[in-house]
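Hello again,

I reread your note about wanting to compare the complex against the isolated chains. To keep things tidy I'm splitting this into two emails, and this first one only covers the full assembly. Below are the input lines as submitted, including protein chains and any nucleic acid or small-molecule components. They are followed by the predicted structure of everything together. The single-chain runs will come separately.
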Amino acid sequence: MTFLRQRLLFPALNHATLLLFLGVLAVFGALSPKFFTAANLTNLLVQSSSTAIAGIGMTFVLLTAGVDLSVGAIMFVAAAVAGKLAQGGAPLPVTLAAILAVGLLYGAFNALLITRLRILAFVATLGTLYIGRGLGLWITQTRPMDLPDGFLALGAARWLGVPLPLWILASVLAAAHVTLTRTPFGRRIYAVGNHLEAAKKAGLNTRRLLASVYVLSGLCAAIGGILSLAQLGAVSPTFGANREFSAIAAAVLGGTSLFGGRGAVFPGTLLGALLIQSVENGLVILNADPYLYPLVTSAIIFAAVLADATRNAWLERLGRRRIYHEHG
Amino acid sequence: MNRLPTNYELPTTNNQQRTTNLLRSEYLVLFLCAALFLGLAPFTPGLASAGNAINLLGNLLPLLVVAVGLTVVLIAGGIDLSVTSTIALTSVAGALVMNGDTGWLAGTPLAVPSAIALMLLLGGLVGAFNGLAVTVLRMPAFIVTLTTMMFLSGLAIWLTQSKPIAHLPAGFTALGTRLWLTLLVAAALGAFAHGMLTRSLFGRWLHAVGHNARTARVSGVPVTGVVIAAYVVSGVFAAAASVLYTARLETGSPVLGQRLLLDVIGATVLGGTSLFGGKGKVAWTFFGVLFLTLLDNALNLLGLSHFMIMMVKGGVILLAALLDAWRALEVRRS
Amino acid sequence: MQNSHPSRTTNHEPRTTHHDQLSFHAITKSFFGVKVLKDVTFSVGAGRVVGLVGENGAGKSTLMNLLGGNLRPDAGAMRFNGSDYAPRDPRDARSAGIGFVHQELNLFPNLSIAENLFLDGFPTRGPFIRRGRLRDLAAALLNRAGLDLPPETRVERLSSGERQLVEIARALSFDARLLILDEPTTSLSARECERLFALVGQLRAEGRSLIYISHALGDVLRLCDDVVVLRDGEVVGQRPAGEWDPGRMVSLMVGRELKRLFPERAPPAQRGGPSSEQGGPERGTPLLEVRGVAQPGVVRDISFTLHRSEILGVSGLMGAGRTELARILFGLDPCERGRITLAGEPVAGTPRRRIRSGLALLTESRRDDGLCLEASLADNLALVTLARYARTPLRLLHLGGLRDALAKIREAVRLQPRLASAQPVKTLSGGNQQKVVLAKWLLAEPRVLILDEPTRGIDVGAKFEIYQLIHDLADRGAGVLVISSELEELTGLCDRILVMSHGRITDDLSRAEFDRERILNAALPG
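Full-complex prediction:
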């Protein structure tokens, strides 16, 4: 591979999402003038906040080369529990706390299955996905559940002119970013994802590190669920369906590698979530057939994963040991 | 001996050893089926009736076909999450060709054979795509097939605007409604897969690649070709299962098989095919499918709501994975 | 600082004075009944650099593993810093103040230098890393290690030489009083080597001790105060550096005794197979011709000829490129230039095609890519030749034929009859496992068989049987290429030996010219 190609293609792969995002913005902006209005852009941010937060949690998991397929189910169960409590007359703060608690517990259960019982991550979370969906359907008795107005108020509230969901997104994003870049815990996550054996040799408590990311994913899923509820105001039987997919997409589009050890929540995952949402947004504005959305989304995700795999293959080739040096 | 590999000690006869031997036996799931049946029959109205047996068989056979296809991929060390969407897409595609109202070949004698041929071809193409992405493009199998699953499902829904296609010719639907025909097809496919896995060169190569792809490559096995072929088999079998499902439903449905993913993976892994590759048998998958179908059947008869059943099945898949991990550990320890 | 003279004989009187940093006393260690270290006694004075030299397999790694707490000695004792030293795990070694810089680097390329250095002990304020302090601490260490790079640099951007210096910096981070450098210069450029040497001098000036393990004998003599030579697990020489010269060192490393471990072999002229047209009764016809094979950074200028009925050895130190060459010849790794022909026909393409041309490769690590450990004996044996027993691509009808062939080959390699064909291969001993791999290839009736460390990790009895099998194969007209790190094995087994160093062939000796010193010299760098 020539040096020049290396200089061009590698950064292109690394910043694929940014390029894609700008590309999408350009295309949709050109196709419809309504795209670039302030209202639409703020709307875009608010709509993507739920996916972005779930994606942030997923980023932690992917950094360790794991995966959490139960994110959508977590949202559903948490929302169902909250709904039941609210119907029983519990005040808003209690229901919110319950959602977070469900997320933490669910994540801890996943962590147990994966780190103690040594079940492969994707099978374990696939199993808990079904258990969760079943649980949620049982709680809601398959009927849509209306939530008290407090939730919608949360969604519509503004503080200093900025919608509350954006404040929540910003806080979660900041906390995650700081954790990943400035705490020992965060840096060790990168080490574990890069090379589990070496991390063990270096004396890190890899089991605890691996368990934590699933708990965090559960928590983020719960928070994302709250924001979703704030927009919808109700829990339908399909609440949270396929959200794990958009969370993974947001992270991978943002540059997080499925192979572990590489990725960032800011700007990465945030951009990824924005990209997914803006594609959907743009399709709506263009009055495209809504049945096209999953097709477009999966195609984009495929492209992102392909870029990730290609980069990984190149890195592997470059990392091979040299027997001799050309220049002494 | 039908045992999974042990550490070649002389067997002791204490209870712990017997339990371990039972857990290690490849007939474990068959025993579980028997236990399940005998345990629930007294409480479950209609479980032991002939009518129910026919119902059970009708559910079991198409599931078996798709699970056998998945077994092939698992043996090669891969995973295919897109089988259920393949079922949906091929169902729709076949229906589009042969349905009585708007079918492209409606009314002609070639309608049914062409429809079936198209379905199988489509399944194979999906498999080839998955296989290429996993081998040549080096993408992780689970995310590739997850993405494909989304795409195909979306495609099926888009093509039909989420509306099922009815009025399929009788010659086709007989395959699903006449149970003996279904049995014939399923048995033939099962026998074919069994023969391929146990007696053919390809089957041996599959196992080798699943055990250790590096060794296989050094030993001259065409690893890329073998893996792609495995995914093609999975796709074709999913399409074949779709034929049976669609025939039974007498409708081409874009959401066909949506709830099946758990059943397919759970049944295959429970039966003994390993997620780690290199190990799997058609007979084992049959045991797993039998167990899951029996469980589903019994729970339905007991009046459990479908979400309760969903939870139970989720638990079963976790149990299956646990068993798989335990077996792998046990073998490694010896 | 004074230094107590290490004993030169096998006198085991512990002569530690308080000036000695580290001392070994009659250390003995065996693996599976084979003595790997015998009565090893020497000491390292405070502020002294001791060079440890010896061939591959002389016992250096085992000794260092004992020191590092990965293994425990069967007999003997160690003393460090004036007290008894018996580490139970690497952490004990570290807390005692012993720092290892291994050949295999354990860094995380996706983290910065500073983060790698303090991964399990970040300076923190509350939950956060104190970045400024981290940078300063790291910079100080890097400064001492002689690496002039910003601590925030990601390790993935460093050359291997720079990474090595980071490892050294890491050993310094916990104030190691004794540092062990294991082959530190193998991946270093000349400039980086100089930096390393300067660092060694500096460390010594700080009163630290060093054990310097290396094959670069010139460097060893230059840097070290004393040199200890190990051979076959014993200390055979121990002197201040000034009293050595490379020639004497090599002689001692190589030793003079030849053991009768090899089956008798008729000289090439008397063996079966056509005599050469090229003149000279000792050579058969050319079989495998390799011309100008090169892959940048891996191997260069590889040209040699392997003849019929010839056993050609490839010697060299670890990392010389021998395994890489084997993989290139077999088509597992790419090669940019060069031509390979087998009996005049070009050899190219995938391993599958090369196998059809008549090539076979027994890889360096049977566990990694020689066997399917969980699969049965029979499945492993049949893996290469399976296709021959398939009627059409679909059927494997000739199971009977396959079974017969397997039974025959089992007998031919003298695989224990009591082993069941259905037994998973992982339950077999090392020797039997290797026989299975060899049998797998013999079934394919190869014209050229490449063996990479064929007797690694197997017992003496099985070794002999494998040597016999190699002889038989050659006698039947095949060409055999044997890569081995055991000089003795090569000199006993081969008709000719090629020596590789740094990716190229440095010497070519016929049997009459076999001289272990010459071979070792050709293998050493520089």
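For quick reference: Confidence is low (pLDDT under 50) at residues 1-12 of chain B.

B.
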